[in-house]
Amino acid sequence: MLDIQFIRDNPDFVTEKSAQKGYQVDVRQLLELDGERKTRLTQIEELRRRRNEQANSLKASRPSEEQIANGKQLKEELAILEADVTSIEEKFYPLLKAIPNMPLDNVPLGKTEDENVVSKQMGDKPAFNFTPKHHHELAEPKDLIDKERAAKIAGSRFAYLKGDLVLLQFAIIQFVMQTLGDESIIQMLITKNNLSVSSKPFRPILPPAMLRTEPYIASARLNAEEVTYKLDQDDLWLNASAEHTLCTMYWNEVLPEDVFPIRYIGYSTSFRREAGTYGKDTEGIFRMHQFDKLEMEVFSTPETGHDEHLLMVAIQEYLVQQIELPYQLLQKCTADIGKPNAVGVDIETWFPAQDAYRETHTADYMTDYQARDLKIRIKRNSGETELVHTNDATAFALGRIMAAIMENYQTADGSITIPAVLRPYMGGRTSL
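Predicted structure:
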């Protein structure tokens, strides 16, 4: 959530920037409640001081009836004020949490995702002397995807992945883990992009696939039943993306300055309801209720947070370039970057059968917005503490990137060429 002091100092700015992201917030009511809350807390502090003074004065002698009466009155007044604060905070915190993070100055203004800005296009689109097939049409004769049997036992938007497609997925995982664990590659990208960050490699991690309500809400990533599956008999949600159980990892912790940056590359199966997408992307494995994902998560100092974001975008581009897929880089506008994000970038990869670029990656920089409610802090070497900055970014959403590989690397006879960078992880094979 946003810093209340920042809101006090900049009420009109917060209202304007929230509206640019599509959020109508009641800053006036929030600040009125904030004032009432501050007044009550000051009064509570004064009553506690008086009560402590009285308690100290009674240690030396037996209390009089008047002193007992005064002590009882102080206790009653304190209880009333504490109840008032609880009542005020029940209204105050929902209003505070409703305010989104402020977009950075370089985020394009826009009211819908149609106003996102393409900042670059890279790679040559494949030229076919035949009509390219959709990836599900390529997979079906090879028995690589079975959605019919999956629907029989789990419902729509589930699939059995089989044979060579499973091997391809694990080849991609190995390629990503090796790449992000190579400090020389990280340093090369830092130098190329003139960034002021550490060359520390990413550490592989397998996070839980479930998390409790309290940390999920604090992460500002819980999209309730519209997107996220809830386990009815437990206080547990299935994570809707791998970063949801990564960004919450250090909930309520203070970490020493010397450990930063903390960089993870996490692999997780994720789950989404995909509400509102009925009839969209029903063929193949582009949009599923269950999908596997490789996700980068970084905890950093405030002064390096934005460069960490730029590094993660550079890593995303490097990974797609190594697989030699055409793509475009999208600067997301204010309406599309999301509530906790200060800036967001997407990579859209070319899908020949659809004659379109489709989203395969996103990179989000949250500044200290997530960390404030998650209470994740840095203890500086000076002894001072402050909030960390958080970043997350897709390495590969595996179903989507495999669909892109199948479509871009298809041949006239229906076979699929394996990208050269992945062949060492598939025993040297050249095609599926």
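Summary: The chain has a mean pLDDT of 93.
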